[in-house]
Structures are given as structure tokens and as C-alpha cells.
């Protein structure tokens, strides 16, 4: 399969090779890595090298502390998990990642912990006199019944100065001073005490100006409400929620609200994470939309994994796998170019099918991936991303087309940044039909038009009012607003 002709719309002009932006101007490309996927540190190192070669510049590991029920139910914040055994091994890995030129991001569950966690005072838990408050969230089950899901952890009271001191002095500062960590993901930032979080972020930044924070602000509610704690605390970057939702144009509108309220703070589009369906299963659900229409994520897992016993793309026929990979590629193109940053879960590039279970997924699950040209595609898309500032800053994103999961056809967005730089990304999700799109006037009449492919930037004098995209084809346009 010819990669260029299949996946990119390319004009008949010779391309100019990409010149990568300076490292400081590039957005972050995160790999969300469950440590349980690896039996040894050496196995993890080999995978990190693969990630580096793809273009990942931030290693984000799931909580590495000694776990209780799961990595997000911490038993001891002052002891590492079994993979590392001691802090010397952890520090050596972080130094290895630093020498590769990548950021080292740890994930700290500030919000909740095992009620009997070592070194945490009982009085630091909310309502400790009544045995605490178990952390959880409202959700739906596979039959679409509204349920409460508890996590086995108990809520901490981060308004307490002595608990804030513990986070700073016993957890954060040692990781920065001794273990080569330079970035922190604030788990469930939307539920933290704003003043307490602001102190944690502020004092860390004052002592270590090179350290930056990513605020998790996810949940089934308007994005801006969930981001308020992180914004108030001065977090450097945010998740923007687009791929936590299945369809419609509501979330791009929500992203615009965050863009305005946060004054353009960088955000991260989630292509995949340990909390959501893997892209391969999402793609199969799109292909078989007539069978799964209306089913929620848990019901889709039940149908494919439990009822049909599908655990790997290797079990499916060649044609279906080809369609899945094609859909995964065009979805990554949409995600990767939308905002400053993009994140994918470890194994997405290998076509992992089953959803990551932070309690039980192990090396045998990671080994269920397949070999394909998907890592090569992701590498080339990241090169495109890092070639133009429009893909590495925030802007107004106007979506169009067929975004609902049971729809096929053209979909995409036009992005306009404050400096006037613009981009349009459009894909054809139809497996059989060539489809035509009337281009927005702001693109047709813009200056410095270029169409991008994995070969480089194809500068053009003008562009037709209407373009056609073949099945599973991608069109990426950059220009300046006239």
C-alpha cells in the first residue's frame, strides 16, 4: 500500500521538506504508560526508545507508588511499586528518559488514597471520624443503568496545610531533586481544593521553575467547570476532553470556552488513554455501527470481548483489520493537529484491542498488539505537527461534518490562531465513496496556502472551491488569514 497516495491528498507540485520547529515551540506528545505492561525495567526502556523514535517527547507513567487495590489507590507514597523496588532504580530510569531528551511526568493521586496508607494521618481524610468518604463517580453500566462506581480509595482533605506540606516535602520535592522528574500530572484536579492546589503548584514552581503541571479536568459535565481548580492553581496545561465523548459538536464548543477562559493555555487532545476504549475497539464499533448503535463503551466491551471473545486484532480477518487501521490513522490525524498537545495510551500504535485495566492488565495484554505501518504513520503525522506553529498552539476550532460514531463521511475542523495562522484538517471516513467538500471562504481566500503530506509542504497559488477525498483520505491545509 502506497502510504502517501492512500492517506494524503497531494497536489501536483514538488514538496518542500519539513523544517522542525525549535523544541521549545513544539507541543507535547504524551505517551500514557501503564507500568504493569512491563515485567522488567529493561523491557520498559526498550519501549521508551520506540516511543522516542515515533516522536513522543513526554513519558507519562501511571502512578508508580506502592499500590493497594490499584495504582490509583496508593498504599505508600514514599515507596515505589514492585517494578522498581527502590528509588535508585526509579531515578535511574528517569535519568535514562532525560538523556533521550524527553520530559518525565509522574501522576500523583492527590485526591484519594488507601484509608490505611502509610505515612498519611487519619485526620487528613475527609470525615475521618466516620471512617472517611469513599471516592467514586456516577457512571452507567453496560445496560445503560445509572450507577455509582467507587474506587476503593478515600477522599483526602487538601485544604489542610499539613497535608499540603506532606505532598511538597515528602513526595514532590524529592522526585524533582533526586529522581529527575520535571513534570506532574494532577490527577482529578477538578475535585481538589483550589487554594490547596494553588499552593502546591505555586511553591513547587517557585523552587523549581523548570517543573510544569498538567491538570486532569475530565468528567461528564461542561469542561470549564471541571477546569476551574486547575486554572485557579495556575496549571501550565490541560486536557481538553474531545475524545472522552462519542459524538456531536458539543465538546469542540466546550474547548472554545476553555480557550477563552484560560487565555489560550495549551491543551492536550486525548487520542486514547488508560481510562477509555482503545482506538482499535472504537474503530471496530464504527465499522459495525449497525450492531452497536446506542451501546455505551461498557456494552461494546461486553459485546466484543466477553461475547465474541475478541482480544486482539490478530483474530480478525485481513479486510477488517485494514479498515480498523485506516480509521485509527485518520482519527489520529484529527486528534494530533487539533490542539497544542496530543496524548495516546501505550500500545495504541500497536493496535491493542482490549481496554486497559489498571488493576490487571499485564505484559501478556501488551503482547497482544500487532505489527503494521501505524507507528510509521504516527511518526509522520507528528513530523507534520511539529513543522508548523498552527498545530502547536491553541486557537478557535470550528468543527464540521459527520462526528457522531454511527456516521460516515467527511468530517474535520478549521482552526484559527490569534496570530492569523490557520489550518484545516478534513478526513473521509467512508470506506467506499469518494466525497466532495465545499471549502470555507476563509481557506479559499487565504494567503500562503500549502497542503501537507508525509513528503513535505506543497505550496500552492490557490485552491479549488470544492475538493474530493477518496475513502480514508486526509487533507491538511495551512494558510494565513488575509
Question: Can you walk through the features of this model?
Answer:
With 482 residues, this protein is an alpha/beta fold. It has two domains: 11-18 and 392-482, Golgi alpha-mannosidase II (Immunoglobulin-like, Sandwich); 19-391, TIM Barrel. It is built from 14 helices and 21 strands. The strands form five sheets. Strands 1-2-5-9-10-11-12-13 form an eight-stranded parallel β-barrel. It has a six-stranded antiparallel sheet with strand order 14-15-16-21-18-19. Helix 4 (161-177) runs parallel beside helix 5 (194-207), helix 5 crosses helix 6 and helix 8 packs across helix 11. Residues 1-5 have low confidence and may be disordered.
Q: Topology of this protein?
A:
Layout: H1 3-7, E1 29-33, H2 41-54, E2 58-61, E3 65-70, E4 73-80, H3 87-99, E5 103-108, E6 112-113, E7 134-140, E8 146-155, H4 161-177, E9 183-186, H5 194-207, E10 212-215, H6 223-233, E11 237-239, H7 250-261, E12 267-270, H8 279-287, H9 289-292, H10 297-307, H11 318-336, E13 341-345, H12 363-366, H13 374-385, E14 396-401, E15 410-416, E16 421-428, E17 435-438, H14 441-444, E18 447-453, E19 456-459, E20 466-469, E21 474-480
Helix pairs in contact: 4-5, 5-6, 8-11, 11-13
